[in-house]
C-alpha cells in the first residue's frame, strides 16, 4: 500500500520541485516529509483548496503521460538517455502528495509506484559514488539530475529497501566530499566547464550558474547528513559558493568605452511621464538617441561602437 496522500500547498509544491533548494529547506531527518510539513495539516483534516498548487499538480499529472514514454520495458527502468530517469521526482511528488488521478495521468498509481521504485533501486546502485559506472559525481551536469534523484528517493524513503537507502545516503555524503575536495578548482570530469574560481566571470559571463552547481552539490548533505563529522566543512563551502554567487559582480564587456555614466530618474520637461536615462559625466561629450532599441529617453555616446553594448543593455 502506498504512502498516504496529503493536501499540497503552493509553497510546499514549489519547494519540492526546486530540488536542491528544497533539500536545504526540508527537515534534517532521514525520512520522507512528515505529514506536518503540509501547510494544510494532516490527512483527514478539511482544508481550503490552493488553486495555484492544484494547477501545478494537475499539470504534473498530465506531464506523466509524457514521462511514461521514458519507460524502458526491456530494462525495467526509466531510461538513462539524456537523464530521462529524472522523471522519478515528479512521480514521487504525485505518489506522496495531492489526490492521484489515474485517468489524467494515463497510468495507474500502483504501476507508477512500482516503476519509480525500480528505477530508484537501479540508479542508486549504478552511481559512480556507490561503485557503479553509469552516472553521477560529475559536477556538470550529473549532479543536477542527481539532486532530483535524491529528492525523489527522500520523498519515497519509507518505500525503499534498506540497501537502496544506504546507497542514496552514500551518494549524498560522497558527492559533498568530492565537491569539497575540489576547493575552488575545476572538476576534472567536467571538461571546460568552470566557475573561474571564486572570482567568477567578468567579461560577458558572470559564471553564476557554474558557482551554483558547486553549492547545489553540497546542499543535500547539509539537509540529510547532519551526523557526518565533515558537515561543518561542507557548510563553509556551501556558504562561500552561495554567497559568492549571490554577490557576483555585474559583467563588463571588452568594447565598453572608458567613460562614467549615471542613471537618473525624473520627469521629462513638458510631460508627466517619468523615465530613466543614461547620461555621460563628460560635459564635452556629444549625446544622441541610443540605437540599441532601448526605451525612450535613454541615450548613448556617439563614440560607442555601433554593435557594442551600452550600460543600459
Describe this structure in words.
By secondary structure, the protein is mostly helical. The protein contains 10 helices and 6 strands, in the order αααββαααααααββββ. 41% of the residues lie in helices and 8% in strands. The protein has a two-stranded antiparallel ribbon with strand order 1-2. A two-stranded antiparallel ribbon has the order 3-4. The chain has a two-stranded antiparallel ribbon with strand order 5-6. Helix 8 packs across helix 9. The protein is globular. The protein starts with 9 loop residues before the first helix and ends in a 12-residue tail after the last strand.
Give a short summary of the structure.
With 313 residues, the protein is mainly alpha-helical. The chain has ten helices and six strands. Strand 1 and strand 2 (77-78) form a beta hairpin.
List descriptors.
313 residues, mainly alpha, two-stranded antiparallel ribbon, two-stranded antiparallel sheet, disordered N terminus, disordered C terminus
What spatial order of strands do you see in the largest sheet? 1-2
Q: Describe the biggest sheet?
A: 2 strands, antiparallel
Average predicted local confidence, pLDDT = 75
Which blocks of ≥5 consecutive residues have pLDDT under 50?
1-8, 10-47, 252-313
Percent helix: 40-55%
Outline type: globular
> Which structural class do you get from the secondary structure elements?
mainly alpha
| Count of alpha and pi helical runs | 10
DSSP strand content: 5-15%
**Radius of gyration computed on alpha carbons:** 25 Å
Instruction: Determine the N-to-C terminus distance.
Output: 56 Å
The arrangement of helices and strands along the chain is HHHEEHHHHHHHEEEE
How many runs of DSSP E, i.e. beta strands? 6
